[in-house]
């Protein structure tokens, strides 16, 4: 049986159409996996985080910002530093998690710890009837709470933020590392770190504010000046001072006071202010006394321990120490 040229042509066209159809289906399958698949959406989100593009990351994640939160970590330097500690990122294959839902695992090293975060996505339809469209499930970003004792400022991921009433809630993408610290002229707080690995908020970052060496020096200088003024008084009981000398003998010479040991200031926060611990030191008195009955004169050189309190006020660059002497 002979095959006519027409039949041969039709067979060729049919074969070509089959090959084109097969290639088209393969292309659709490839695009569904690489450009429209849920893993691709996760990669785009992670890419936005690396670029510090908070607006794009927020849209891709399909998330809202917690009401009343500070957005300092959602863009620019704060966001870039949040992802700086993220290493060895691996996007895994999507796993079925219910009807039209999947979870895409992302493994990474954050602050030296290996962690996995599962990102939930849902199928929302198709594009041109061919490509499956995936979208992150709607969520609310977690928030990191930062607080500081007696401070209205803190530095979070290198960004200066205000602390109304001593605390602030900062919305954060994830995965992310958050660092908080405070460095002022008179007070500072060592760095604290937290990692955000999912929708749940990490433990609060409570900054322990301490006096800087400059504040301690300023307080010590004022205490020294106060005690030196007391030592210049040539009486047994220097006025408004924490030390005195009690005797029943008569004075037979000049009275000279000097400070042997100056107290060291210990400053701690309390009730929104700063508390000075009780101040202890010793003074030395040198004089001559005459015995009331015998008339004998003797030299007196004695150490006189003392203790007193003081109020501390710090306003801007002004440090004021007010001694409190009780008899």
Provide an overview of this structure.
This protein has five helices and 22 strands. It has 327 residues and is of the alpha+beta class. It folds into three domains: 5-140, no CATH class; 143-209, no CATH class; 213-324, no CATH class. Strands 16, 17, 18, 19, 20, 21 and 22 form a seven-stranded antiparallel beta sheet that branches. A hairpin with a 3-residue loop joins strand 5 (113-127) and strand 6. Helix 2 runs antiparallel to helix 3.
What's the order of the H and E elements? HHHEHEEEEEEEEEEEEEEHEEEEEEE
The portion of residues forming beta strands comes to 35-45%
Q: What profile does the largest beta sheet have?
A: 7 strands, antiparallel
What count of helical segments does DSSP give? 5
* Share of residues in helices: 10-25%
Question: What separation lies between the terminal Cα atoms?
Answer: 132 Å
Shape: rod-shaped
Domains counted in the coordinates: how many?
Answer: 3
Essential attributes:
327 residues, 22 strands, 3 domains, alpha+beta
Summarize the structure.
The protein is α+β, with helices and mostly antiparallel strands and 327 residues long.
Topology overview:
Layout: H1 5-34, H2 38-51, H3 54-61, E1 63-64, H4 76-83, E2 86-91, E3 95-96, E4 101-110, E5 113-127, E6 131-136, E7 139-140, E8 143-148, E9 153-156, E10 159-162, E11 167-171, E12 176-183, E13 187-196, E14 205-207, E15 210-211, H5 213-231, E16 250-251, E17 256-261, E18 267-270, E19 273-276, E20 279-290, E21 297-315, E22 318-324
Parallel strand pairs: 1-7, 8-14
Antiparallel strand pairs: 2-4, 3-4, 4-5, 5-6, 8-11, 9-10, 9-12, 12-13, 13-15, 16-20, 17-20, 18-19, 19-21, 20-21, 21-22
